[in-house]
Design goal:
Helix content: 40-55%
Shape: globular
Strand order of the largest sheet: 2-1-3-4-5
Order of helices and strands: EHEHEHEHEHHHHHHH
Strand content: 5-15%
Distance between the termini: 42 Å
Oligomer: single chain
């Protein structure tokens, strides 16, 4: 039962392995505050049916029969821009991580993630975070270190906006970024709107993807 005042987080699953798909659905439906709106074997099936009861978050595999999970992200984000998508996959290589984030994924988890951490990550995503498995976060940071210094002038971002964007890339949410910078959540929202306008994006995940792609942080 959901606690008073707590909103139920609706989750859809796209996973081709039946035992994993059904196991995830059982965990989600068996936890107060969470509900599974649909569990799909293929991305084609998900795209056809997910709009009937749109979730808050999609747990999305990459290696699927037919259309890949990464290609599916792009279509889902085009249709439902506010939909949050967390990758849940066995793949931890740089190329797939980078492609998933650039396509619009809000986080990247490995399938060995424990159920408690998985549920925590779903809530974190809804709260504005970008959850990643530790191994993935280390790879993302390593990718940043290989990048040359950003050319802030070309993006029009101020040093403060770049610092804020870097925090979001590292997985911070509004509250933790505000604490890190010593400002209010309202100030974070103000600066984020400026970042959206300058980068010509509409969401935090799009801003993170563009920052990665254009080496802005």
């Amino acid at each position: 039962m959901t606690a008073p005042g707590e909103t139920t987080i609706r989750v859809a699953i796209v996973e081709d392995r039946r035992e994993i798909r059904e196991g995830l659905a059982m965990i989600i439906n068996g936890t107060p505050g969470f509900s599974c709106t649909g569990a799909y074997r293929t991305m084609e099936d998900a795209l056809d049916r997910i709009g009937h009861e749109l979730p808050d978050v999609v747990l999305n595999d990459i290696g699927l029969p037919g259309m890949s999970g990464i290609e599916g992200i792009r279509i889902l984000k085009e249709r439902y821009p506010k939909l949050l998508i967390l990758m849940l996959t066995i793949y931890d290589d740089d190329e797939r991580i980078f492609d998933a984030l650039c396509a619009g994924a809000s986080g990247y988890l490995l399938k060995k993630t424990q159920p408690a951490r998985l549920l925590e990550s779903l809530r974190e995503a809804v709260d504005g975070g970008a959850p990643m498995s530790p191994e993935v976060a280390r790879r993302v940071i390593a990718l940043f270190r290989d990048f040359r210094a950003p050319e802030a002038v070309s993006s029009g971002l101020t040093p403060h906006e770049i610092r804020l964007l870097r925090l979001f890339v590292e997985g911070h949410n509004y509250k933790t970024a505000a604490a890190e910078l010593g400002v209010t959540v309202h100030t974070i929202s103000f600066h984020l709107r400026s970042i959206y306008e300058k980068l010509q994006v509409h969401s935090k995940s799009e801003a993170v993807a563009k920052a990665l792609r254009n080496r802005l942080v």
